Structure prediction request, 415 residues.
Amino acid sequence: MSGRVRVASPRLLLLQTTPDARLILIARGVRAFGDGFVSVLLPLHLTTVGLPAGQVGLITTATLLGSAMLTLLAGALADRWKRHDLLVRASLLMIFTGVGFAVADDFWPLLAVAFVGTMNPTAGDVSVFLPTEQSLLSVTVAPEHRTALFARYTLIGVLVAAVGALAAGIPDLLTSILPMSLSRALDAMFVLYAALGVVTLAINHRLSEDVEPPADAPPSRLGSSRRAVYQMAAVFSLDAFAGGFTMNAIIAFWLFLRFDLATSTAGLIFFWAGLLSAGSQLVAPMLAQRIGLINTMVFTHLPANVFLLLTPFMPNVELAVACLLGRFALAQMDIPARTSYVMAVVTPPERPAAASITNVPRSLAPAVSPTFAGKLLGMTTFGWPLVIGASLKIVYDLLLLAMFRHRSPPEEQHR
Prediction:
């Protein structure tokens, strides 16, 4: 990176936010809670209504492909619709998704709802909300505080999603205390997801006109930054494709096969993994202020992937889980730095389009790799998906450093 920047104060994470930024952060938390429990309950719900494993996989893929298409659409409409209207329409789509999964039992209706809806099987945010919220947040703070704000955004998402994952136990509780079948209890959780969409809609309705660009602002299309944005999207695609081999569902499946781990134990592991990931967000902005955004992305992500690479070679479950927790403690520190970097190296009018294009890989690229991961685990319990995913992620880290280490954001260009 070109030069050093000043060290962040710990008070940076306590920075004052605008009312609109606070509303976006609250809406992020509401959606994260729903994402947390539906990412766990979605496959159980689909098998409970009688769908075979192959159709469950197709519906899961449809959720990711649909999110990618909607994210691209949001970027294309950014200069035609108001930002407020985009978020309101996305909230209505969230309500439709919850109701659709609650009332539909057949494959084709569920596949259609999965493709056009906001259902998220990853517990991380890969939804149509993401690019619009990122572009809005980036204009609510000074450049030197942008990474801290995105760290707060990611922290809220990871932490609340971990709590949401614990809420996936509610159907078992309902069936134990009420005369209710598991299928009805699961339907109730998707109704809850729709209700969270109503709350999100109410929050987004309160956004002020300040979130809109000036009337004389140029169109929000890519201009001078086009090449850099497409380069970032390409390299992010490699990371996202690798992530499909190491999704929580794949890791949990491997733990079940390799160590015969109980479902409750796996849930507890991923809860603590979520807490570690959330805690790392507190460190990310201070580290970025000291060593720069690209270095923060690479030098936290790289050791995380080494931990992941070592996991299948561990001789017992205790050491395997220790490696996984080490990985989760570092693996998401790059997220606020990455988002901040994308917003920093493009011009303000380009931000909605840049956010859309660079977020598409998070939905599109990992849609295929889980199929290969499942086939590998069907052949052996060694953990080849983790080895392949970690290796590809290490290649991504090295490519990112080689391609962008000399392209510093404006706030880092102090000598």
Q: What stands out?
A: The longest helix spans residues 19-48.
